[in-house]
Every structure is written in C-alpha cells, then in structure tokens.
Amino acid sequence: MRPEDVVNLDLYPILDQASPERAELVKRLKTELDEKQYVSLPDFIRPEARERAVADAKAALPRAHHNSSQRNCYLQRKGDETLPSDHPRNLMLEASTRMLAYDQVPDDCPVKTLYHWEPVRQMVAEIVGEEKLYDNEDPCQPVNLLCYQTGDRSAWHFDSVNAFTMTLMLQASEAGGDFEMVPNTRSDDDQNYDYVRSVLKGECPDDAVSVARSAGALCIFRGCNSLHRVSPVEGDSMRVMGVFVYEREPGIVGDPEVNATVYGRELSAG
C-alpha cells in the first residue's frame, strides 16, 4: 500500500509543511503531549490499512515470541542483590505478551510503510520537540507488532532510554487491555525510587491515568519516565498494537538485554 493509502490524510494533513492546517495540528498535539505526557490521534490509519496489518499479525503469530516471565520495571529479568528486597529493581512483575519483531513483520506491512515515511517522521519530530528523527536500525526494535491474547498483560515498566514512545492500536480486545500510565514517575535527574516502589506495590492507584485507545488511534507518550502497563486482556478478540521506535541520532541499535527479554533473542557472547 502507498503511504497515502495508509495514513488518514483527510484528518491529518501532514504533507504540506507550509500549510496553516498542519501547523495548527502539530502545535495542538505538541501542547497536549507537553501538558499530559501523552497524546492520542484517533483514526490516524485508514481502515483498509489497519485490517491488512491485523491480517499480517495473525499470519505471523505462530512465529511470535511468547514472553511470559517475571521482570522488573526496567525490563530486566534479574534484580540486584546489593539492594533491598523491596527496591524497584528487585520487584518482579508478571508480563505475558506475544511479540513480533521488526524482522518478522512483512516488508510491505502498513506499519512499516507508516514508520519509514518521512512526512510521518517529521510530524512526530515536531510534536516531541526534536529538529530531526531517524529510524532505529536494530533488527528487532524499529517497528513491531505486539499481540495480547486472553490473560496476556504488560506489567508496569519504563521504555528503556527512549525519550518518547509511539504506538498504534490496530485491534482492541473485547474487554480488559486498558492502557494505564503514571505521568512523570521519575525524571532524567531523579530515579524517584520511593515513588516508583509505591506505584509498583499498588499504593497510589489514583495517580494512574487511563488512556483511551480506539482501533486506528496513534498514541505518542513519554514512556521513558512514565511507568505504564496494559491490564489483562479478556475475551476472544486479540489485542494487536504496532510499536514504533525513532531515534535522535542515526545508526542506533537496541540494548541486547532488552532484545533478549522482550523479543526472545539470545545475548551475544561477551
């Protein structure tokens, strides 16, 4: 599919960078992201493209990595024995997802078309306050399809070191599968371990924000410093979500430990 057939340009006129409509759209979305740490763009992808992406996910599902494991909120499967047992790095939570890595997704899948299209990348750069963004060059991380079947969930976690996270809801579950986040749980200068611990132990439920995610909605959020999770999925309809990773510099590849944890890839020796 052509990029113009994937992105809903009727609602999101992003091609003409000089147009007032585009400038107003980007300004509004940037303001909302800065204020709330997340912004949702409903119906960003056209229905035909969304259906094709879901079909690609279902076809590739037998090859997905079923990640059912205990991990901490830093995406590590091992804690730190030098720290107290209730330190956030030692609080292990159950996560169960089915991940299709970049190299398992067909090259002509609409999520890859969207990800690699310069007008989308430039729009995202302006929304998140960057002059320019680059595609991630990891074999697993640039674009992936995250699938949740009955009982699957994503535990509280931070998104590695990325300044922002971008996701696209392709198919919602019948029930459950709610996306929740706690904005500004930590900062670049303060890990805020006491507060992180209280969130992980369920001691401040009112601080969590539920982000509405309808099928076709693009979401940009500050997942690096905001804990977030997906509640257990219920029903027969598989929850399918596209996940996109852009970088501030060219030539970036992912953390091998994260790839081992999330995508089931073996850590290289040494």
Descriptive report:
- The protein has 270 residues and is an alpha+beta fold.
- It has one domain (3-263): Jelly Rolls.
- Helix content is 26%, strand content 24%.
- It has helices spanning 3-6, 20-36, 47-60, 110-116, 118-128, 193-200, 256-263; strands at residues 38-41, 65-71, 93-100, 134-135, 143-148, 154-157, 165-171, 175-176, 179-182, 209-211, 218-221, 227-230, 233-234, 239-244, 246-247.
- It has a 7-stranded antiparallel sheet. A 4-stranded antiparallel sheet has the order 6-12-9-10, covered by helices on one side. A two-stranded antiparallel ribbon has the order 4-15.
- The longest helix has 17 residues, at 20-36.
